[in-house]
Amino acid sequence: MIELGKSHSIIQQMERLGVKILGISESHWKGSGKKLIQDTTFYYSGSPESDGVNYHGVAIAVDKTINNNVKHFLPLSNRVCLLQLNAQGRHINIIQAYAPTMDKDDEEVEEFYRDIAAAMRLTKSIDVTIVLGDFNAKVGEGSQTEVMGCFGLGERNERGDRLLLFCQENKMILTNTLYKQPKRRLYTWISPQDKPERIIRNQIDYIMINQRYRNTVKSAKTYPGAYIGSDHSILIADVQIKLKKLVQPKSRTQIDVRKLQDLSVKGTVFQELNENLDTISMQHDAGQVEENWLTIKSALLGPCNKHLKRTKAKREKDWMTEQILRLMEVRQELRDRNADKTKLKELNNKIRYECRQAKEQWLKEKCEEIEHLQTLHDAHNMHKKIRELTGSKKQTTHYLLNECGDIIVETDKQVKLWEKYIEQLFDDDRVNVEDIETPTGPEILKDEISYVINNMKKRKAAGPDEMPGDVLQLIEEKHLDKLAHLFNQVYTSGILPVDWLKSTFITLPKKQNAKKCEDHRTISLMSHVLKVLLKVIHKRINKKLEENISETQFGFRNGFGTREALFAYNVLAQRCLDVNKNVYVCFIDYNKAFDKVRHNRLINILKEENIDTRDIQIIKNLYFNQTAEISVNSEISKELKIKRGVRQGCVLSPLLFNVYSERIMAEALEEEVGGIVINGTHINNLRYADDTVLLAENMEDLQGMLNKVIRISEEYGLTLNTKKTKCMIVTKRNNPPEQLIAGGDIIEQVGAYTYLGTRVNSSAEYLPEIKIRIEKARAAFVNMRSLLSARDLGLETKTRLLKCYIFPILLYGVEAWTLNKECEKRLQAFEMWTYRRILRIPWTDRVTNVEVLRRMGKQVEILEEVKKRKLTYLGHIMRGPKYKILHLIIQGKIVGKRSVGRRRISWLRNLRDWFSCSSQDLFKAAINKVRLTLMVANLRHGDGT
User: In what order do the strands lie in the sheet with 90-98?
Assistant: First the structure.
């Protein structure tokens, strides 16, 4: 199926032969999902995207006339998949299979049949179940039983016995052995050794149906004359079953904000929307919040429902041309006339050539579109077009596993499973918190609302109220008074409209092939109008709450991020090793930390902070009255009460979680004297949101800290995941392993750990991480090679794509890197590798790097970029008063004794060597922005002074 034109040839044969469903073995498509080609939908299941090979693979092609009847698709493996259709009073189950060839061992064959058995368990006895595919088995002829007819072909082999055993166990019958046919209508495969004087043709493909529906099959035979470019012949069974008439469900949100890109449509909506707001009157009674909200909602949604209705998008034409399709028809006509094989071969070659030309022309046009969008500075649509051409969707699982490990396919059952999971996850015996008697807080100003709305991101999904955020930006300034009136009613009364208390959970897989509910992350879609109010509140309370958050928390804080956390950890570990001090590290992993926050404790913590009580009251009423529904395959669950956790997707959640986790760490470690001592300061933890690292100088101190953190965390509702929590000893020596215990479980001691997306190790070396980053960047380049190696895309655009999509993957965490000569060589080699692929220079050509750079019109830049970013980052942290802990880590004194001999390369030594100056000179230059800029500018000339 990966051959150009193969899928179109199959579609053509389906139309010619009147086939509505076609099973395909050995498709070679990686991943799983569905593809729409012309008007035919291909459901496929192959090897995982991460695998380097694309062997095997199965697919089912479904004609557009019955595709609406498809209920479920289940990719079980790269050899078995299940498609379920709605029929009258029952389901039709299509199981497509591809058995191991004769050279594979029996264990692989048994694994294949176990996959089919798993699919069979999902069917019901009342259903019509059809199993079809290449079974690489011969059942032979002349032996009529309840599972086969007497019109097979050849002699039975061991694989044939195994197939018949499967049929007996599942009460299936082989349909293409039931009817007397000429032998040319029985064989399904032609051997490569087949010759006119020695015919070798076998029956190894079968279509089976459960015995109770045997009479629905009217015929089953092969069509050896149908050309599909395979050594197998098409096997067709005529099965007559009535399908169920279905009405396609409408999605909840019918508003398409993309239509606002049309200025005439935008102008019409703008005018009508503001005319509506001009005519409405607001109620002033505090108890009429709901009425005022519904009035504003109606005024805003009316023009949207009228002018922004979602219409079916036109499907872009693919690269296939009418000329090629006509050549395929001619090829079939030649086959029908038994034309000379030489003519057929010539025509096949011509079709392949035309397919390549058509695909290249299509790609050229797409590249021109990308070039045009770049000249228009339309970054959004340019990157969207790039993703369409190069972005492969992540492999998705179309089923869930329940607690017993049973496969759940039906959407209604998946909804029930999700409801049960959400109820358990967010259930809590919380105690209600008393309302605040003396509310304080200034009224919400129109300017605050205007600022938030003008800075909202576009094209964000709407919440349960179906109000797009883009529509709020069409409100005229004078009409924001009405929104301000509503917000102040809510703010002073603490009463929130019902729509604002609802949220819709969408589920996103945390990893490939996520099969359980806990393997997913729930994101809350909520009202955009509520988001505006919460952003106003966030702006008011953020600075006050951040004052009490520790310097060791790098997550969800302005000016802090993963690079600060990685820098702190790596430089601290290096400096400890410089003075022969071991670092005992525990990487803590919490169980669903964001979902376990206790609301009553959170509100009580906020009451102790210096923020207005009305802000607290809004947060309290929102969290204590919120409900959620889960969206699963466009089906919505019942409303569920959310009794704990912060909402992932809410603007307040990161700040609230930081406040909550800060209280835990403060209580657990406030009297702790362990940790790494720098200039008399104890650094015993580094945090990025819920990713917590405990640091100590010995295992005893680390055990004591961990015990306290576990105890206090449990009081606040957070529990450790002892399977994912790891410990590591950063040392120069091969010390014997030491035990760290959490809740009776021994924490695994590791030599390397993935921390915030980078691989840190017990020797604090950076070469392993550099190798990983290079391979990740190489994989991204290969994924985009259709564009980066395209002949018709300009070199400037390719270079921009390289900098935008490939180099950021390579340079993630670069500010914390410490490079030796080997690291530098590997980075430069990878850079030249990308340039050679862009220029399409084969490895056999003896082209020097100097010539490659001349053709690219540039100098090597990766290493220069590393130097620039490390130096710039030094200036950034040294000039920033908020980075006191980083100043301490890089400049402070750690008590210890250096080893005799040459010192290890350190983070700071990299800069000293690159710019030929002392540490003191670097620190002086770092706080002088002008001098630092000159040093960066002089990098290319080899003079960093």
Answer: 70-75, 80-87, 90-98, 128-134, 205-210, 172-174
